[in-house]
Amino acid sequence: MEKILPSIVQRDPQQKEFHQAVQEVILTVQPVLDRNPEFRKQAVLERMTEPERVIMFRVPWVDDQGQVRVNRGFRVEMNSAIGPYKGGLRFHPSVTLSIIKFLAFEQVFKNSLTTLAMGGGKGGSDFNPKGRSDGEVMRFCQGFMAELFRHIGPNTDIPAGDIGVGAREIGYLFGMYKKLRNEFTGVLTGKSLAWGGSLIRPEATGYGVVYFAARMLQVRGQTFEGKTCLVSGSGNVAQFATEKILELGGRVVTLSDSSGYIYDGEGIDKEKLEFVKQLKNFKRGRINEYVEKYHGAEYTEVDPSLDHNPLWAHQADCAIPCATENEINEQDGINLIESGVTLVSEGANMPSTPGAVKVFLDNNIMYGPGKAANAGGVAVSGLEMAQNSMRLHWPREEVDERLQQIMESIHQTCLDAAAEYGLQENYLAGANIAGFVKVVNAMLDQGLV
Ligand code: NDP
Ligand code: 2IT
Fold first, then answer.
1. Which of 322, 330, 366, 439 makes an SS bond possible with 233, Cβ 3.0 to 4.6 Å?
2. Are residues 169 and 264 in the same domain?
3. Which of 237, 378, 406 to mutate to test the pocket of ligand 2 (most atoms within 8 A of CB)?
4. Which of 122, 191, 280, 438 is catalytic?
5. Is residue 404 part of a domain?
6. Domain end point (choices 373, 408, 442)
7. Atom of ligand 1 nearest to the CA of 381
8. CA 110 / ligand 2 centre spacing (Å)
9. If 0-12 CB within 10 Å is exposed, 13-18 middle and 19+ buried, where does residue 289 land?
């Protein structure tokens, strides 16, 4: 192990999620460093683990009662070796600098894999949109953009959505940017269709994670037809992953939110999924309301003091985590294997702990790490940027076709990079190695900047 991790830990001892993301990469790129002594001499790991820029700021806003509130805003501009900083914004009370740094770090590798020219960044706030009125969300977004606008731009840094940031928030953020700059430009992605958005962007992460999984299945001569899937989350990524699984003939039996999960043994069909979309996207309700409508399903509240999440203990063939980081721990990993799961494709960022990942690799299951499997979202963000630059719109079929090609290419790139180092079908090693090599070469070309 390089000496670099202890020094990162010593510098920022409280940034546990960031350490976790870095450690995984350091471990998997050792053979690349051994083969390329220049990389160590040029201290590429030391440079890649230090953000190019960190912006932290105060966001004051006024709630509906007239009370002044203060939140903290972040934008971590991690690496711009292969393109402008690109990555989402997360609004969630759990957001810290560590969370944003881990997400920005992962984004660098993910964006590198997409085949498009995008560097990596991530931002957000500890603002909690849950239970807030549209007016409160608007005022918060305006306050957030009142500082962020001076750091971003269509050729500098292009934010998008993530947890807690969807079409509504992107609209308010864009409106404020436009007002402050007096400029109508593609500075954000995930915009609404009528003002610069791309078809398929809302679907892209969820569809992409299933396209990636379908490729992994294909390598082993299988398809989604008749497969039972455990999906977690019930937001953007979970909804469209479910939609695509159904289209490909699979069955989805679970969905969740941060309070608990539903199990529907009859399967969540198209009509039930439509109910979930309405519930989550417009009524902003909770997933337990599903069982009030569909009596065949059961709701289980998740007890955070338990050593496992019972969602991952149901009999199934595939698991598609689409909620948040570290939602599958080692015990959950063991439970998944014992329940018959042979494929894990990560819609969320870093949803599996290192212990869980070890279980997957030791059991030789098909394991698609988030930075490869969920890259479809940012890939279509890249396509949105391309359409904005050309001032035209591609039809749905064209964007979907390009998304499928990109996911296929990422899948193949991971396989090839892993095979080059004798690690057949290890998508984790493949993703880290391929993402790393491209960025490092660009950094070396550009000198010490
Ligand atoms: P949404 O806000 O649309 O949905 C998030 C879902 O995850 C909700 O069901 C939410 O439940 C649940 N969730 C959030 N935090 C927690 C938590 N701490 N514990 C348990 N459940 C939680 O976000 P997205 O669907 O966009 O994002 C989901 C994951 O996918 C994240 O890891 C994100 O980083 C990743 N991702 C998103 C992309 C995108 O394009 N949107 C692209 C690539 C990755 P609740 O309603 O209770 O909060
Ligand atoms: O984690 C991610 O890749 C995202 N939240 C999407 C980023 C983007 O710029 O579309």
1. 322
2. no
3. 378
4. 122
5. no
6. 373
7. 40
8. 9
9. middle
